[in-house]
Amino acid sequence: MSFPVVLDACVLVPLPVCDLMLRLADAGLYRPLWSEEILDEVERNLPKLGVTPARAAKRISQMRNAFPSSAVTGYERLVPTMGNHPKDRHVLAAAVRAGAQAVVTANLKDFPADALAPFGIEALHPDDFLQDLLDLDAALVLRCLRDQQEECRKPAFSLSQLLDALARAVPGFANQATQALFPPGSPLPLEIVSSQQAVNAFFPDSTGLDHATARGAAYLWWTCLLALDEPGAGDALAALSASPADWGDFRQAARELSGWAMAQNLIACPDAPDAVAYAKFVPVTGHNMRAFADTPIRDVYILTVVRCPDGYWRVWGMSRNWLPPLSRIEQGARPGSR
């Protein structure tokens, strides 16, 4: 029998974490427990994240159906005797009633050790709990991660995008899982292609190769940088830059990006997806390359591209291993190479 664990509402609300937690439970790594009070709290809070009430109700119904033995009842009389934070006493009471070994919660301060110790219960942050499960059975946890990524459809996620999403709530686990999935020193999944094949990969429908799109602006800026000594390249770079004067003669940027190539997929700024995008540049072997598998690359240059008032996209700045937030861009800070 898998060890029983009560999942607090704060763990069940964020979809990437909740989905993974339930997949791991379904795989037999632990037994999830909750009360109707916990599920009601989840359903009330999901609309705050943009989930419609109908979809929230459907999600809770699916959880009940998938784990019919997870419901804890008969704990109500224990609630007044619990010594943790009043608003979370029902969670601890459910754990005591069910004989749970742990409560998994992001609100550790509401579950002090001295209130849990008499019942032999431990409060664990989901980050720590997931890392424990990864240590327990790495192959099974990584298989569940891959299954989660492959079954994500609305929206679809790459494996690295899923890890990025998980990192917002469980950064330690996301980092350990990344190390396990892509060990340091493993070869990058890149394929040597011709220049025309690279263009076709970036712009498969033969449209978008201009600065009316974020990808087009970034790609044109980069190709002009590669041809900096050619006549007209400097003028083109200036036209494709949000603040040309901050780049000087562009030679510093050219030196920094020497030996780096633009990755195909751009990242939309979560706070302004229609106005700010990030293009990644990865180290290369001197050939045009394209990815044929998904992997996070830890050392990257970031080209930040912004939509200007005239509707066209231009390069705002360049950074290394850092995505400038919208607040920094709106401050009008120097956008040149950092």
Descriptive overview:
- The protein is 41% helix and 16% strand.
- It is built from 15 helices and ten strands.
- The strands form three sheets. The protein has a four-stranded parallel beta sheet with strand order 2-1-3-4.
- A hairpin with a 5-residue loop joins strand 9 and strand 10.
- Helix 12 packs antiparallel against helix 13.
- The termini are far apart.
- Mean pLDDT is 85; it is low at 187-208, 285-290 and 334-338.
What share of residues are in beta strands? 15-25%
Describe the strand arrangement of the main beta sheet, using strand numbers: 2-1-3-4
Q: Average pLDDT value?
A: 85
Largest sheet: 4 strands, parallel
Shape: elongated
- Please estimate the helix content: 40-55%
Structural class: alpha/beta
In total, how many beta strands? 10
- Give the topology string: H per helix, E per strand: EHHEHHHEHEHHHHEHHHHEEEEEH
Low-confidence stretches: 187-208, 285-290, 334-338
| Rg result | 25 Å
- The DSSP helix count reads 15
Distance between the termini: 54 Å
